[in-house]
Amino acid sequence: MDYESISVARDADVLRLTLARPERLNALTPAMTDEIRHALAHLDGARAVLLAGEGKGFCSGADLAAIMAKGGDPGEGAYAAVRDHYNPLIEDIGRLPVPIVSAVRGAAAGLGCSIALSCDFCLASEQSYFLQAFVNIGLVPDGGASWLLPRLAGRARAAEMLLLGEKIPATKAADWGLIYRCIADDALESEAGALAQRLAKGPTLALGATRRLIFDGLQRDLGPSLAAEAEAQRDAAQTADSREGIGAFLTKRPPEFRGE
Protein backbone atom coordinates (compact mmCIF):
# COMPACT_ATOMS: atom_id res chain seq x y z
CA MET A 1 0.00 0.00 0.00
CA ASP A 2 1.21 3.51 -0.83
CA TYR A 3 1.02 5.85 2.17
CA GLU A 4 0.60 9.61 2.03
CA SER A 5 1.42 10.65 5.60
CA ILE A 6 3.78 7.98 6.86
CA SER A 7 6.78 6.14 5.47
CA VAL A 8 7.63 2.50 6.08
CA ALA A 9 10.94 0.74 5.54
CA ARG A 10 12.53 -2.53 6.58
CA ASP A 11 15.89 -2.68 8.34
CA ALA A 12 16.62 -6.40 8.66
CA ASP A 13 13.83 -7.67 10.95
CA VAL A 14 12.80 -4.18 12.14
CA LEU A 15 9.92 -2.26 10.60
CA ARG A 16 10.77 1.44 10.67
CA LEU A 17 7.58 3.49 10.68
CA THR A 18 8.04 7.25 10.36
CA LEU A 19 5.35 9.89 10.79
CA ALA A 20 5.83 12.05 7.69
CA ARG A 21 3.98 15.35 7.93
CA PRO A 22 6.92 17.47 9.12
CA GLU A 23 5.30 20.70 7.90
CA ARG A 24 2.59 20.08 10.55
CA LEU A 25 4.95 18.64 13.18
CA ASN A 26 3.45 15.27 12.25
CA ALA A 27 -0.01 16.18 13.54
CA LEU A 28 -2.33 13.21 13.17
CA THR A 29 -5.33 13.38 10.90
CA PRO A 30 -7.84 10.51 11.08
CA ALA A 31 -6.62 9.30 7.67
CA MET A 32 -2.98 9.35 8.82
CA THR A 33 -3.94 7.39 11.92
CA ASP A 34 -5.58 4.77 9.73
CA GLU A 35 -2.36 4.50 7.71
CA ILE A 36 -0.40 3.79 10.89
CA ARG A 37 -2.92 1.13 11.88
CA HIS A 38 -2.64 -0.47 8.45
CA ALA A 39 1.17 -0.57 8.66
CA LEU A 40 1.06 -2.14 12.13
CA ALA A 41 -1.39 -4.75 10.91
CA HIS A 42 0.89 -5.74 8.01
CA LEU A 43 4.26 -6.45 9.60
CA ASP A 44 5.18 -8.97 6.87
CA GLY A 45 7.49 -10.90 9.15
CA ALA A 46 9.04 -7.95 10.99
CA ARG A 47 9.96 -8.89 14.56
CA ALA A 48 10.07 -5.38 16.05
CA VAL A 49 8.84 -1.88 15.19
CA LEU A 50 10.68 1.43 15.50
CA LEU A 51 8.37 4.46 15.49
CA ALA A 52 9.77 7.95 14.88
CA GLY A 53 8.78 11.33 13.48
CA GLU A 54 10.24 13.14 10.50
CA GLY A 55 11.64 16.61 11.02
CA LYS A 56 11.79 18.69 14.19
CA GLY A 57 9.06 16.98 16.20
CA PHE A 58 7.83 13.49 16.95
CA CYS A 59 4.13 14.40 16.87
CA SER A 60 2.22 17.51 17.89
CA GLY A 61 -0.99 15.56 18.54
CA ALA A 62 -4.28 15.36 16.71
CA ASP A 63 -4.72 17.71 13.77
CA LEU A 64 -7.61 19.80 15.08
CA ALA A 65 -7.81 21.81 11.88
CA ALA A 66 -8.44 18.65 9.86
CA ILE A 67 -11.14 17.53 12.26
CA MET A 68 -12.88 20.91 12.36
CA ALA A 69 -12.68 21.25 8.55
CA LYS A 70 -15.29 18.55 8.20
CA GLY A 71 -17.88 20.95 9.59
CA GLY A 72 -20.90 20.02 11.66
CA ASP A 73 -20.99 19.95 15.42
CA PRO A 74 -17.39 20.25 16.70
CA GLY A 75 -18.07 18.04 19.70
CA GLU A 76 -19.49 15.26 17.57
CA GLY A 77 -16.61 15.63 15.12
CA ALA A 78 -14.02 15.30 17.87
CA TYR A 79 -15.90 12.38 19.39
CA ALA A 80 -16.03 10.51 16.08
CA ALA A 81 -12.32 11.06 15.41
CA VAL A 82 -11.36 9.78 18.85
CA ARG A 83 -13.78 6.85 18.82
CA ASP A 84 -13.20 5.65 15.26
CA HIS A 85 -9.53 6.47 14.66
CA TYR A 86 -7.39 7.57 17.60
CA ASN A 87 -8.58 5.14 20.28
CA PRO A 88 -8.33 2.10 17.99
CA LEU A 89 -4.70 3.03 17.26
CA ILE A 90 -3.81 3.00 20.97
CA GLU A 91 -5.50 -0.39 21.31
CA ASP A 92 -3.61 -1.69 18.27
CA ILE A 93 -0.31 -0.68 19.85
CA GLY A 94 -1.28 -2.47 23.05
CA ARG A 95 -2.15 -5.66 21.14
CA LEU A 96 0.81 -5.60 18.74
CA PRO A 97 2.39 -9.09 18.54
CA VAL A 98 5.95 -7.73 18.46
CA PRO A 99 7.86 -5.18 20.59
CA ILE A 100 7.66 -1.53 19.60
CA VAL A 101 10.16 1.26 20.35
CA SER A 102 9.44 4.98 20.00
CA ALA A 103 12.20 7.51 19.31
CA VAL A 104 11.10 11.01 20.31
CA ARG A 105 12.81 14.13 19.04
CA GLY A 106 11.22 17.51 19.77
CA ALA A 107 7.57 17.61 20.79
CA ALA A 108 5.46 14.63 21.78
CA ALA A 109 2.19 16.39 22.54
CA GLY A 110 -1.39 15.31 23.15
CA LEU A 111 -2.15 12.16 21.20
CA GLY A 112 1.50 12.07 20.10
CA CYS A 113 2.53 11.87 23.74
CA SER A 114 0.12 8.99 24.35
CA ILE A 115 1.40 7.10 21.31
CA ALA A 116 5.04 7.50 22.32
CA LEU A 117 4.39 6.39 25.89
CA SER A 118 2.23 3.45 24.79
CA CYS A 119 5.25 1.82 23.18
CA ASP A 120 7.25 -0.76 25.13
CA PHE A 121 10.31 1.48 25.16
CA CYS A 122 10.31 5.24 24.68
CA LEU A 123 13.67 6.88 24.07
CA ALA A 124 13.80 10.67 23.87
CA SER A 125 16.51 13.14 22.95
CA GLU A 126 17.67 15.61 25.58
CA GLN A 127 15.96 18.53 23.83
CA SER A 128 12.59 16.80 23.50
CA TYR A 129 9.54 17.18 25.74
CA PHE A 130 6.18 15.65 26.54
CA LEU A 131 3.03 17.72 26.77
CA GLN A 132 -0.64 17.17 27.52
CA ALA A 133 -2.03 20.60 26.62
CA PHE A 134 -5.73 19.77 26.34
CA VAL A 135 -6.60 21.92 29.33
CA ASN A 136 -5.00 24.93 27.64
CA ILE A 137 -7.65 24.85 24.91
CA GLY A 138 -10.59 23.80 27.06
CA LEU A 139 -10.52 20.10 26.17
CA VAL A 140 -9.95 16.88 28.11
CA PRO A 141 -7.27 14.22 27.56
CA ASP A 142 -7.75 11.51 24.95
CA GLY A 143 -5.65 8.74 23.46
CA GLY A 144 -5.76 6.95 26.81
CA ALA A 145 -3.73 9.62 28.62
CA SER A 146 -5.99 9.64 31.68
CA TRP A 147 -5.54 5.86 31.97
CA LEU A 148 -1.85 5.59 31.08
CA LEU A 149 -0.21 8.50 32.90
CA PRO A 150 -1.34 7.62 36.46
CA ARG A 151 -0.08 4.08 35.90
CA LEU A 152 3.29 5.24 34.62
CA ALA A 153 3.99 8.15 36.95
CA GLY A 154 1.37 8.16 39.71
CA ARG A 155 -1.65 10.34 40.34
CA ALA A 156 0.18 13.50 41.44
CA ARG A 157 2.44 13.63 38.38
CA ALA A 158 -0.42 12.73 36.06
CA ALA A 159 -2.37 15.63 37.55
CA GLU A 160 0.60 17.93 36.93
CA MET A 161 0.64 17.00 33.26
CA LEU A 162 -3.11 16.89 32.66
CA LEU A 163 -4.35 19.76 34.84
CA LEU A 164 -1.51 22.25 34.40
CA GLY A 165 -0.76 21.57 30.74
CA GLU A 166 2.96 22.26 31.04
CA LYS A 167 5.88 20.78 29.14
CA ILE A 168 7.74 17.90 30.79
CA PRO A 169 11.36 17.86 29.55
CA ALA A 170 12.78 14.48 28.57
CA THR A 171 15.19 14.52 31.50
CA LYS A 172 12.28 14.96 33.91
CA ALA A 173 10.23 12.33 32.09
CA ALA A 174 13.06 9.85 32.57
CA ASP A 175 13.33 10.71 36.28
CA TRP A 176 9.59 10.16 36.64
CA GLY A 177 9.72 6.79 34.92
CA LEU A 178 7.52 8.00 32.06
CA ILE A 179 10.11 6.94 29.48
CA TYR A 180 12.79 4.30 29.19
CA ARG A 181 15.74 6.62 28.65
CA CYS A 182 16.79 10.18 27.81
CA ILE A 183 19.47 10.13 25.10
CA ALA A 184 21.99 12.65 23.81
CA ASP A 185 20.56 14.40 20.76
CA ASP A 186 23.12 13.00 18.34
CA ALA A 187 22.73 9.42 19.61
CA LEU A 188 18.94 9.01 19.54
CA GLU A 189 18.59 7.28 16.19
CA SER A 190 21.51 4.92 16.73
CA GLU A 191 20.47 3.86 20.23
CA ALA A 192 16.80 3.47 19.35
CA GLY A 193 17.74 1.48 16.28
CA ALA A 194 20.11 -0.75 18.26
CA LEU A 195 17.40 -1.46 20.84
CA ALA A 196 14.88 -2.33 18.13
CA GLN A 197 17.40 -4.66 16.47
CA ARG A 198 18.12 -6.32 19.80
CA LEU A 199 14.42 -6.95 20.37
CA ALA A 200 14.04 -8.25 16.81
CA LYS A 201 16.65 -10.92 17.55
CA GLY A 202 14.77 -12.12 20.61
CA PRO A 203 12.16 -14.89 20.99
CA THR A 204 9.41 -13.02 19.16
CA LEU A 205 6.44 -15.12 20.26
CA ALA A 206 7.49 -14.96 23.91
CA LEU A 207 8.13 -11.22 23.68
CA GLY A 208 4.73 -10.67 22.10
CA ALA A 209 3.01 -12.71 24.79
CA THR A 210 4.92 -10.88 27.52
CA ARG A 211 3.98 -7.42 26.27
CA ARG A 212 0.33 -8.48 26.10
CA LEU A 213 0.54 -9.74 29.69
CA ILE A 214 1.88 -6.35 30.74
CA PHE A 215 -0.83 -4.48 28.85
CA ASP A 216 -3.64 -6.70 30.11
CA GLY A 217 -2.18 -6.81 33.61
CA LEU A 218 -2.68 -3.07 33.96
CA GLN A 219 -6.40 -3.77 33.80
CA ARG A 220 -6.69 -7.03 35.78
CA ASP A 221 -6.46 -8.21 39.37
CA LEU A 222 -3.72 -10.62 40.47
CA GLY A 223 -5.70 -13.84 40.09
CA PRO A 224 -6.59 -13.42 36.41
CA SER A 225 -3.06 -12.22 35.72
CA LEU A 226 -1.60 -15.39 37.26
CA ALA A 227 -3.93 -17.52 35.16
CA ALA A 228 -3.00 -15.61 32.01
CA GLU A 229 0.71 -16.07 32.77
CA ALA A 230 0.24 -19.82 33.16
CA GLU A 231 -1.54 -20.08 29.81
CA ALA A 232 1.07 -17.94 28.08
CA GLN A 233 3.87 -20.04 29.62
CA ARG A 234 2.25 -23.20 28.28
CA ASP A 235 2.18 -21.73 24.79
CA ALA A 236 5.72 -20.35 24.99
CA ALA A 237 7.13 -23.68 26.16
CA GLN A 238 5.90 -25.28 22.94
CA THR A 239 7.80 -22.91 20.61
CA ALA A 240 10.99 -23.61 18.70
CA ASP A 241 12.60 -20.55 20.31
CA SER A 242 11.95 -22.00 23.76
CA ARG A 243 13.64 -25.26 22.80
CA GLU A 244 16.54 -23.27 21.38
CA GLY A 245 16.80 -21.07 24.46
CA ILE A 246 16.76 -23.95 26.92
CA GLY A 247 19.20 -25.94 24.83
CA ALA A 248 21.56 -22.96 24.63
CA PHE A 249 21.33 -22.45 28.39
CA LEU A 250 22.13 -26.08 29.14
CA THR A 251 25.08 -26.17 26.72
CA LYS A 252 26.33 -22.72 27.76
CA ARG A 253 26.14 -21.06 24.32
CA PRO A 254 24.35 -17.94 23.05
CA PRO A 255 20.84 -18.70 21.74
CA GLU A 256 19.87 -18.02 18.15
CA PHE A 257 16.18 -17.16 18.15
CA ARG A 258 14.20 -17.25 14.92
CA GLY A 259 10.85 -15.89 16.07
CA GLU A 260 9.18 -19.33 15.81
Describe the structure.
The protein is α/β, with parallel strands linked by helices and 260 residues long. It has 2 domains: 6-200, 2-enoyl-CoA Hydratase, Chain A, domain 1 (Alpha-Beta Complex), CATH 3.90.226; 204-250, Lyase 2-enoyl-coa Hydratase, Chain  A, domain 2, CATH 1.10.12. Helices cover 48% and strands 15% of the residues. It is built from 11 helices and 9 strands. The chain has helices spanning 30-41, 64-68, 74-95, 111-118, 145-153, 155-164, 170-176, 188-200, 204-217, 222-236, 240-250, and strands spanning 6-11, 14-19, 48-53, 100-104, 107-109, 121-125, 129-131, 168-169, 181-183. Strands 1-2-3-4-6-9 form a 6-stranded mixed sheet, sandwiched between helices. A hairpin with a 2-residue loop joins strand 1 and strand 2. Helix 1 runs parallel beside helix 3, helix 3 (74-95) runs parallel beside helix 4 and helix 9 (204-217) runs antiparallel to helix 10. The two termini are 27 Å apart.
